Automatic annotation (TrEMBL):
<dbReference type="InterPro" id="IPR023198">
    <property type="entry name" value="PGP-like_dom2"/>
</dbReference>
<keyword id="KW-0378">Hydrolase</keyword>
<keyword id="KW-0812">Transmembrane</keyword>
<dbReference type="GO" id="GO:0016787">
    <property type="term" value="F:hydrolase activity"/>
</dbReference>
<protein>
    <submittedName>
        <fullName>Hydrolase of the HAD superfamily</fullName>
    </submittedName>
</protein>
<dbReference type="InterPro" id="IPR036412">
    <property type="entry name" value="HAD-like_sf"/>
</dbReference>
<dbReference type="InterPro" id="IPR006439">
    <property type="entry name" value="HAD-SF_hydro_IA"/>
</dbReference>
<dbReference type="InterPro" id="IPR023214">
    <property type="entry name" value="HAD_sf"/>
</dbReference>
<feature type="transmembrane region" description="Helical">
    <location>
        <begin position="7"/>
        <end position="26"/>
    </location>
</feature>
<keyword id="KW-0472">Membrane</keyword>
<keyword id="KW-1133">Transmembrane helix</keyword>
<dbReference type="Pfam" id="PF00702">
    <property type="entry name" value="Hydrolase"/>
</dbReference>
<feature type="transmembrane region" description="Helical">
    <location>
        <begin position="38"/>
        <end position="58"/>
    </location>
</feature>
Length: 271
């Protein structure tokens, strides 16, 4: 709640308290008279009725605003990783039981490297990316190949994903995917994405050779499917990707967990 709203609420509470206490004040100070008592009682009742009326009006106007926003937002756009699927490379890497020094090196030179993010753009074939990873840590050449070969194991579908998109679909929203995803990973994990059948469209970075948060990939989605930015809400776990959507006029919700994201969507009228 904003400061001015809190101030108004406090002032209103104080006013009502004063009005309700006036009859007792007159009685205790010896200045009681039937006229004063009836006036203060009428004032207290009037204040209570007005407060209730204002509360009802607020609820009505707020509901209309949410309904208006809900109609305005027609398209829900999802990121995939850490929104509709789990992406847990840390547990995956630990399961190899490499020595601590090697594990840290592989984490840095594979999953935390710029090459990993570039891989999502799909500019080269998989073997070229493997070669570039190996250049960073040639002493672990064999293990790098093994880790990369099995990276689809980092992906697991969220238990709420299918039910969530089904619900939104039944509510009449059009659903889309906008995700940074490498070709190698997409080919080997697409079968796990049971929510894809409910989507009205999808743009994966490896297919269009562009990545978030660059404006081009958002524009491709909007133009390919004829979407108006102001009618879209984008859900992503990374703030920089949400900012990219907002810059083009879309609403955006940063995803932390399902309950929070659902509440943020409801605040926009999407429910």
């Amino acid at each position: 709640m904003s400061k001015w709203k809190r101030g108004l609420a406090l002032a209103g509470a104080v006013f009502l308290l004063v009005i309700f206490c006036l009859p007792m004040y007159f009685a205790l100070t010896g200045t009681f008279s039937m006229g004063k008592f009836m006036a203060s009682l009428a004032g207290a009742l009037f204040a209570a009725v007005m407060a209730y009326a204002m509360w009802l009006m607020y609820r009505l106007l707020n509901r209309k605003r949410l309904e208006k926003d809900g109609r305005r937002i027609k398209n829900v756009i999802f990121d995939v990783g850490n929104v509709l699927v789990d992406y847990d490379w840390k547990t995956y890497l630990k399961d190899f039981h490499f020595p601590e020094e090697e594990e840290k090196k592989l984490a840095k030179e594979i999953f935390q490297s710029d090459i990993w993010n570039e891989r999502d753009k799909g500019l080269y074939d998989e073997e070229e990316y493997i070669r570039r990873f190996i250049e960073k840590a040639p002493e672990y050449k064999k293990d790098i190949r093994r880790v990369l070969r099995e990276t689809p194991k980092t992906i697991g579908t969220k238990d709420y994903a299918q039910a969530w998109v089904q619900y939104l679909k039944k509510r009449g929203y059009r659903l889309y995917i906008l995700s940074n995803y490498s070709e190698y990973m997409l080919e080997r994990t697409k079968a796990k994405m049971n929510f894809l059948k409910y989507m009205d469209g999808a743009v994966f970075s490896c297919d269009v050779k562009e990545v978030k948060p660059e404006p081009a990939i958002y524009k491709i989605l909007l133009e390919d499917y004829g979407l108006k930015p102001e009618e879209c809400v984008f859900i992503d776990d990374r703030e920089e990707n949400c900012r990219g959507a907002r810059k083009l006029g879309m609403h955006a919700v940063r995803f932390h967990d399902f309950k929070q994201a659902a509440a943020d969507l409801e605040a926009l009228g999407v429910k």
